[in-house]
């Protein structure tokens, strides 16, 4: 009978070989030190590992516990050399291969407190370690068992309508299936969603509701929470599962979800296809705090790097400021003596170039010190190399090494966050300079090459090199061969983190006492990236600017800034270059008063001012002079924080950052005038 054949299908799932559920079979010896186990975790992606003595399992240790021991103050000193068997997890669950899957699930769910979320160790009959079974794997199997049991119970209920003698068994099995569903499904450590390829959640557990802060109902669509830039990728992933139904191994992905009342949160997804039900099982874990910690580590390395560079930066800026002060004094003296304009013009040029060079150094410094926020765009990696070479000019000269640039003559565009890639190149360069200190031949070489859809950057030196036994550990956090006062071992691990976020690769090769070479591989910018970058930075051609300048004769301009020198300079430039009539006020409130009294063709305003700032003035214009709001230019000396950039971008107004060249100011004003 059909009702008798179906249970055999269920038992096939229940009697699954537990060895097939093992995620990994890695183990460490009980005599290993805690520090070595920590390093093992850094080079593996697993969260738990078995501890073995005489080929028998004696316990399990976790990444989190070992990291907590060594991450605490004096952690390495207190626990680093202790054997790992002194820090085994208490009351860890160990199962045998002959146990049934249902018995394992029941034992796993009976655990209390934090141990409920721990992975499980598998042994054979002789207590020999066979591997680790993860909680997400058990959740996936429990979902299959729950669905199998529910379907089986329903079929039996229908069959037993024709045979009252089987009614009690069918109802009992249904109650058991429902009970397991409530226990296994609802008490999962992760959020569980069973959904279709459109992202509509057909079943979700209580943990999922807690993570999302929402009540899951029949109309709930998970894809609606995924931020628009990631939504197409999320739906494409779901369709891929349906297209390849034979692939049942979980896919690991990360997506940013915008949760009502909580804002953006980053989630890790483990998705797999359930052939028995034609559904996608998604396990969700909120990793927002984890990513914040990673970003803090990168920011900490930035701070350490900037601390080591501060002397050189001060030296470079002072070198730029010296000619400004000197030529300014010469200029004043020559004006008093009535010297010819040609000589005065040369002094002005020297002052201008030195000031722009100072501004460039400060801008690069501010970019490096700002908080991490991935802003992927098309950027020329050759320019980044040149900027790093200029930024570290003092350190390079102090080291006394030669620099060789093997760069293509044309642009080499990569898809990257320019600030993070610049930090990566700086870290590699500083390491190379340290290695060159005691070398008789000092050469630092940068090279860039294109290989298909990838771009390869190499940073090589002729320094002391890296010993073979250290080469495999150089990307581990806190691993360093330098003296304690010269490095904390985070530089290369930060480089690895940056490269992973860019879907790139980084590797190193070295010969002791001959030198080292680091190779960085990044994805080349696509046509869409190039078009987007061009749209953000594009400017009108020279002919258009000239025509607009001619049409701007005697236009009325209102300049709003609390710095008198700034407004005076803008007034002189617009009078001389565009024949404009310029009025100056010191804050937004006075600007509003003048705008109520007179008409102006366009407005130039600082962002930060007393009483009413530039943002407030812009909002007033949108409400009261909407046409003039379209002819508005922000000027700002702000460092370019993420919040400020986002706010300026949301307003849609044009922005010019101080200090700026006069031709840039004129070009922007011609553009404003040309749109009237």
Can you walk me through this structure?
This protein has 24 helices and 23 strands. The chain has 676 residues and is of the alpha/beta class. It has five domains: 133 residues, CBS-domain; 97 residues, PAS domain (Beta-Lactamase), CATH 3.30.450; 82 residues, Orthogonal Bundle (Helix Hairpins), CATH 1.10.287; 164 residues, 2-Layer Sandwich (Heat Shock Protein 90); 136 residues, 3-Layer(aba) Sandwich (Rossmann fold). The strands form six sheets. A five-stranded antiparallel β-sheet has the order 8-7-11-10-9, sandwiched between helices. Strand 10 and strand 11 form a beta hairpin. Helix 10 packs antiparallel against helix 11 and helix 19 packs across helix 24. The protein is globular. The N terminus is likely disordered.
What structural keywords apply?
Beta-Lactamase; Helix Hairpins; five-stranded mixed sheet; alpha/beta; five-stranded antiparallel sheet; 676 residues; single chain; 23 strands; CBS-domain; 24 helices
How are the strands ordered across the major sheet? 8-7-11-10-9
Provide the CATH top-level class of the largest domain. Answer: Alpha Beta
Helix content: 40-55%
How many E strands?
23
Identify the overall geometry.
Answer: globular
For the record, the count of structural domains works out to 5
Instruction: Fill in the CATH topology of the largest domain.
Output: Heat Shock Protein 90
Report the total helices. Answer: 24
Overall mean pLDDT stands at 79
Low-confidence stretches: 1-6, 537-552
The main β sheet shows up as: 5 strands, antiparallel
What is the name of the CATH architecture of the largest domain? 2-Layer Sandwich
Instruction: Give the full name of the CATH homologous superfamily of the largest domain.
Output: Histidine kinase-like ATPase, C-terminal domain
* Rg, nearest Å: 33 Å
* SSE-based structural type: alpha/beta
Cα distance, first to last residue? 85 Å
Beta-strand residue fraction: 15-25%
């Amino acid at each position: 009978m059909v009702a008798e054949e179906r249970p055999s299908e269920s038992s096939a799932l229940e009697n699954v070989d537990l060895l097939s559920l093992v995620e990994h079979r890695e183990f460490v010896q009980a005599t290993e030190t805690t520090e070595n186990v920590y390093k093992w975790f850094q080079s593996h992606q697993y969260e738990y590992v078995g501890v073995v003595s005489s080929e028998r399992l004696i316990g399990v240790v976790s990444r989190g516990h070992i990291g907590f021991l060594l991450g605490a103050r004096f952690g390495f000193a207190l626990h680093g050399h202790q054997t790992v068997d002194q820090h085994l997890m208490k009351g860890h669950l160990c199962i045998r291969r002959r146990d049934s899957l249902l018995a394992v699930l029941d034992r796993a769910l009976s655990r209390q407190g934090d141990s409920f979320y721990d992975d499980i160790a598998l042994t054979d009959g002789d207590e020999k370690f066979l591997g680790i079974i993860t909680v997400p794997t058990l959740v996936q199997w429990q979902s299959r068992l729950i669905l199998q049991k529910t379907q089986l119970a329903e079929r039996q209920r229908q069959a037993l309508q024709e045979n009252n003698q089987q009614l009690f068994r069918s109802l009992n099995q249904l109650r058991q299936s429902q009970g397991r569903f409530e226990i296994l499904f609802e008490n999962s450590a992760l959020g569980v969603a069973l959904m279709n390829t459109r992202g509509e959640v057909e079943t979700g557990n209580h943990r999922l509701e807690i993570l999302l802060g929402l009540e899951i109902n029949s109309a709930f669509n998970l894809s609606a929470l995924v931020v628009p830039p990631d939504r197409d990728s999320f739906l494409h992933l779901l369709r891929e599962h349906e297209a390849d139904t034979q692939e049942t191994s979980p896919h690991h992905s990360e997506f940013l979800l915008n949760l009502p009342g909580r804002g953006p949160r980053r989630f890790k997804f483990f998705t797999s296809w359930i052939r028995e039900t034609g559904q996608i099982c998604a396990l969700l874990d909120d990793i927002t705090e984890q990513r914040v910690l990673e970003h803090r580590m990168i920011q900490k390395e930035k701070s350490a790097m900037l601390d080591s560079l501060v002397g050189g930066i001060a030296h470079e800026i002072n070198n730029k400021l010296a000619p400004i002060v000197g030529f300014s004094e010469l200029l004043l003296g020559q004006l008093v003596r009535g010297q010819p304009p040609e000589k005065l013009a040369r002094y002005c040029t020297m002052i201008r170039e030195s000031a722009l060079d100072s501004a460039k150094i400060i801008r690069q410094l501010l970019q490096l010190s700002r908080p991490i926020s991935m802003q992927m765009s098309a950027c020329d990696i050759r320019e980044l190399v040149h900027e790093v070479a200029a930024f570290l000019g003092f350190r390079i000269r102090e080291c006394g090494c030669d620099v060789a640039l093997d760069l293509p003559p044309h642009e080499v565009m990569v898809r990257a966050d320019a600030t993070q890639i610049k930090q990566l190149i700086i870290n590699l360069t500083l390491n190379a300079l340290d290695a060159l200190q005691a070398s008789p031949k000092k050469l630092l070489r940068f090279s860039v090459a294109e290989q298909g859809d990838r771009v390869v950057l190499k940073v090589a030196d002729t320094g002391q090199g890296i010993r073979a036994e250290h080469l495999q550990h150089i990307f581990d956090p806190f691993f360093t061969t330098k003296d304690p006062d010269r490095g904390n071992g985070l530089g290369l691990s930060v480089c690895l983190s940056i490269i992973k976020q860019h879907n790139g690769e980084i590797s190193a090769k070295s010969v002791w006492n001959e030198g080292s070479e680091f190779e960085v591989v990044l994805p080349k910018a696509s046509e869409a990236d190039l078009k987007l970058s061009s749209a953000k930075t594009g400017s009108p051609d020279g002919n258009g600017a000239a025509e607009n300048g001619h049409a701007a004769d005697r236009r009325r301009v209102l300049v709003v800034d609390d710095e008198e020198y700034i407004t005076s300079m803008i007034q002189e430039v617009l009078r001389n270059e565009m024949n404009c009539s310029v009025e100056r006020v010191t804050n937004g409130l006075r600007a509003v008063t003048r705008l109520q009294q007179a008409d102006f063709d366009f407005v130039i305003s600082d962002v930060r001012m007393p009483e009413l700032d530039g943002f407030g003035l812009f909002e007033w214009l949108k409400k009261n002079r909407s046409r003039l709001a379209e002819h508005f230019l922000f000027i700002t000396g702000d460092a370019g924080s993420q919040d400020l950039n986002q706010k300026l971008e949301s307003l849609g107004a044009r922005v010019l950052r101080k200090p700026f060249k006069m031709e840039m100011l004129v070009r922007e004003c011609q553009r404003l005038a040309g749109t009237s």
